[in-house]
Amino acid sequence: MEIKRNINLNVKKTVENSVAGNEEFHFYVDEITSNDYMPTYAGKADEKYTFDEMNDEFFEFLNRKANEDGIYIRLVFATASEIDGESVFELEYGDNKEEFRTKDIDDVLIFEFADFGIKVKGSEVTFGATIEGGCGQTPYFAEFGSSKANEKFISLENPLNKKVIEIMEGMIL
User: Fold this and answer.
1) Is 149 helix (H, G, I), strand (E, B) or coil?
2) Cα within 13 Å of Cα(168), Cβ side
3) Are 14 and 171 in contact (CB under 8 A)?
Protein backbone atom coordinates (compact mmCIF):
# COMPACT_ATOMS: atom_id res chain seq x y z
CA MET A 1 0.00 0.00 0.00
CA GLU A 2 1.50 3.30 -1.07
CA ILE A 3 1.32 6.04 1.57
CA LYS A 4 3.03 8.84 -0.39
CA ARG A 5 2.03 9.71 -3.91
CA ASN A 6 2.66 12.44 -6.39
CA ILE A 7 -0.77 13.70 -7.40
CA ASN A 8 -1.96 16.76 -9.25
CA LEU A 9 -4.34 17.60 -6.40
CA ASN A 10 -6.95 20.34 -6.64
CA VAL A 11 -6.72 21.80 -3.11
CA LYS A 12 -9.91 23.85 -3.43
CA LYS A 13 -12.10 20.96 -4.62
CA THR A 14 -10.61 18.52 -2.11
CA VAL A 15 -11.18 20.94 0.80
CA GLU A 16 -14.72 21.70 -0.32
CA ASN A 17 -15.35 17.96 -0.63
CA SER A 18 -13.95 17.31 2.85
CA VAL A 19 -15.79 20.03 4.75
CA ALA A 20 -19.15 19.36 3.08
CA GLY A 21 -21.13 21.80 5.18
CA ASN A 22 -19.40 21.25 8.53
CA GLU A 23 -18.73 24.46 10.43
CA GLU A 24 -15.68 23.56 12.55
CA PHE A 25 -13.28 24.77 9.89
CA HIS A 26 -10.04 24.66 11.90
CA PHE A 27 -10.56 20.97 12.57
CA TYR A 28 -10.53 20.15 8.87
CA VAL A 29 -7.66 22.11 7.36
CA ASP A 30 -4.47 23.36 8.96
CA GLU A 31 -1.11 24.63 7.85
CA ILE A 32 1.85 22.46 8.84
CA THR A 33 5.29 23.51 9.98
CA SER A 34 8.45 21.93 8.58
CA ASN A 35 8.41 19.37 11.44
CA ASP A 36 4.75 18.38 10.78
CA TYR A 37 3.21 20.33 13.68
CA MET A 38 -0.09 22.22 13.24
CA PRO A 39 0.32 25.70 14.74
CA THR A 40 -2.93 27.16 13.46
CA TYR A 41 -4.93 24.46 15.21
CA ALA A 42 -3.42 25.52 18.53
CA GLY A 43 -3.56 29.24 17.70
CA LYS A 44 0.24 29.54 17.55
CA ALA A 45 0.83 30.19 13.84
CA ASP A 46 3.13 33.03 12.82
CA GLU A 47 0.77 33.77 9.97
CA LYS A 48 -2.92 33.01 10.03
CA TYR A 49 -5.74 33.45 7.62
CA THR A 50 -8.97 34.28 9.37
CA PHE A 51 -11.68 32.04 8.02
CA ASP A 52 -15.02 33.69 7.35
CA GLU A 53 -15.92 31.90 4.16
CA MET A 54 -14.19 29.77 1.59
CA ASN A 55 -13.34 32.56 -0.82
CA ASP A 56 -10.56 33.05 -3.40
CA GLU A 57 -8.17 34.66 -0.88
CA PHE A 58 -8.58 31.71 1.46
CA PHE A 59 -7.69 29.21 -1.26
CA GLU A 60 -4.76 31.34 -2.42
CA PHE A 61 -3.49 31.16 1.18
CA LEU A 62 -3.92 27.35 1.27
CA ASN A 63 -2.21 26.88 -2.10
CA ARG A 64 0.74 29.00 -0.97
CA LYS A 65 1.01 27.10 2.33
CA ALA A 66 0.72 23.76 0.51
CA ASN A 67 3.75 24.71 -1.55
CA GLU A 68 5.76 25.94 1.46
CA ASP A 69 5.74 23.52 4.42
CA GLY A 70 2.46 21.83 3.58
CA ILE A 71 -1.13 21.67 4.77
CA TYR A 72 -3.19 18.99 6.44
CA ILE A 73 -6.70 18.26 5.16
CA ARG A 74 -8.81 16.09 7.40
CA LEU A 75 -10.94 13.77 5.33
CA VAL A 76 -12.32 11.27 7.88
CA PHE A 77 -13.44 11.81 11.48
CA ALA A 78 -13.94 8.68 13.60
CA THR A 79 -15.26 7.65 16.99
CA ALA A 80 -14.86 4.14 18.38
CA SER A 81 -16.29 1.68 20.84
CA GLU A 82 -16.17 -2.01 21.62
CA ILE A 83 -19.47 -3.89 21.43
CA ASP A 84 -19.90 -7.64 21.92
CA GLY A 85 -16.28 -8.47 21.08
CA GLU A 86 -16.14 -6.22 18.02
CA SER A 87 -14.51 -2.88 17.43
CA VAL A 88 -17.13 -0.48 16.09
CA PHE A 89 -16.11 2.75 14.37
CA GLU A 90 -18.41 5.55 13.28
CA LEU A 91 -16.78 7.23 10.27
CA GLU A 92 -17.79 10.68 9.06
CA TYR A 93 -16.46 12.05 5.80
CA GLY A 94 -17.80 14.72 3.48
CA ASP A 95 -21.53 14.49 4.03
CA ASN A 96 -21.45 10.72 4.68
CA LYS A 97 -21.61 8.64 7.84
CA GLU A 98 -20.98 4.92 8.02
CA GLU A 99 -20.22 2.25 10.55
CA PHE A 100 -17.18 0.01 10.23
CA ARG A 101 -16.93 -3.13 12.37
CA THR A 102 -14.06 -5.54 12.84
CA LYS A 103 -13.44 -8.57 15.03
CA ASP A 104 -9.68 -7.95 14.76
CA ILE A 105 -9.65 -6.22 18.15
CA ASP A 106 -5.94 -6.91 18.67
CA ASP A 107 -5.03 -4.98 15.50
CA VAL A 108 -7.02 -1.80 16.20
CA LEU A 109 -6.99 0.84 18.89
CA ILE A 110 -10.22 1.95 20.55
CA PHE A 111 -10.14 5.76 20.86
CA GLU A 112 -12.56 8.49 21.86
CA PHE A 113 -12.16 10.26 18.54
CA ALA A 114 -9.56 10.54 15.80
CA ASP A 115 -9.08 12.22 12.51
CA PHE A 116 -7.44 10.97 9.37
CA GLY A 117 -6.39 12.92 6.33
CA ILE A 118 -3.67 13.94 3.98
CA LYS A 119 -0.60 16.10 4.13
CA VAL A 120 -0.21 18.07 0.92
CA LYS A 121 3.19 19.54 0.10
CA GLY A 122 3.60 20.56 -3.51
CA SER A 123 2.50 17.58 -5.59
CA GLU A 124 3.27 15.07 -2.82
CA VAL A 125 0.26 13.73 -0.92
CA THR A 126 0.83 11.60 2.20
CA PHE A 127 -1.93 9.60 3.93
CA GLY A 128 -1.96 9.70 7.73
CA ALA A 129 -3.56 11.09 10.85
CA THR A 130 -3.50 13.96 13.29
CA ILE A 131 -1.79 12.90 16.49
CA GLU A 132 -2.38 14.80 19.72
CA GLY A 133 0.94 15.95 21.16
CA GLY A 134 -0.37 15.43 24.71
CA CYS A 135 -0.33 17.81 27.66
CA GLY A 136 -1.69 20.67 25.59
CA GLN A 137 1.02 20.41 22.96
CA THR A 138 0.31 21.18 19.35
CA PRO A 139 -1.06 18.28 17.27
CA TYR A 140 1.14 16.91 14.50
CA PHE A 141 0.81 14.80 11.38
CA ALA A 142 2.00 11.17 11.30
CA GLU A 143 1.89 9.09 8.14
CA PHE A 144 0.42 5.58 8.23
CA GLY A 145 3.09 2.96 8.86
CA SER A 146 5.50 5.36 10.57
CA SER A 147 6.88 5.08 14.09
CA LYS A 148 5.99 8.69 14.95
CA ALA A 149 3.04 7.73 17.18
CA ASN A 150 1.27 4.75 18.70
CA GLU A 151 2.19 2.13 16.12
CA LYS A 152 -1.08 0.23 16.53
CA PHE A 153 -3.01 3.43 15.73
CA ILE A 154 -1.22 4.15 12.45
CA SER A 155 -0.28 0.59 11.49
CA LEU A 156 -0.91 -0.55 7.94
CA GLU A 157 -2.06 -3.88 9.42
CA ASN A 158 -4.90 -2.05 11.16
CA PRO A 159 -8.14 -2.94 9.28
CA LEU A 160 -9.60 0.47 10.13
CA ASN A 161 -6.68 2.22 8.43
CA LYS A 162 -7.13 0.11 5.31
CA LYS A 163 -10.79 1.21 5.20
CA VAL A 164 -9.89 4.85 5.89
CA ILE A 165 -7.28 4.93 3.11
CA GLU A 166 -9.85 3.50 0.69
CA ILE A 167 -12.33 6.26 1.67
CA MET A 168 -9.68 9.00 1.41
CA GLU A 169 -8.56 7.86 -2.05
CA GLY A 170 -12.12 8.51 -3.25
CA MET A 171 -12.22 11.99 -1.70
CA ILE A 172 -9.08 13.42 -3.29
CA LEU A 173 -9.89 15.53 -6.33
Assistant:
1) coil
2) 29
3) yes
Closest CA to 12 of 52, 69, 67, 58: 58
Q: What is the pTM of this model?
A: 0.87
Domain parsing of the chain, residue ranges = 4-171
Strand partners, 83: 86
126 Cβ partners below 8 Å, 6+ apart? 3, 4, 118, 119, 141, 143
- Sequence-ordered list of residues with C-beta below 8 angstroms from that of 146, at least 6 positions apart, any chain: 128, 154
Alpha helices by DSSP H, the chain: 11-19, 56-67, 159-171
At a CB cut-off of 8 Å and minimum separation 6, what does 90 contact? 78, 79, 80, 97, 98, 99
Q: Say which amino acid occupies 173.
A: L
d(CA 109, CA 81): 10
Q: Are 142 and 154 in contact (CB under 8 A)?
A: yes
* Residues 91-142: tens digit of each pLDDT: 998 888 999 999 988 888 888 989 899 999 999 999 999 988 665 678 899 9
For residues 142 and 152, give the distance between their C-alpha atoms in angstroms, rounded to a whole number. Answer: 13
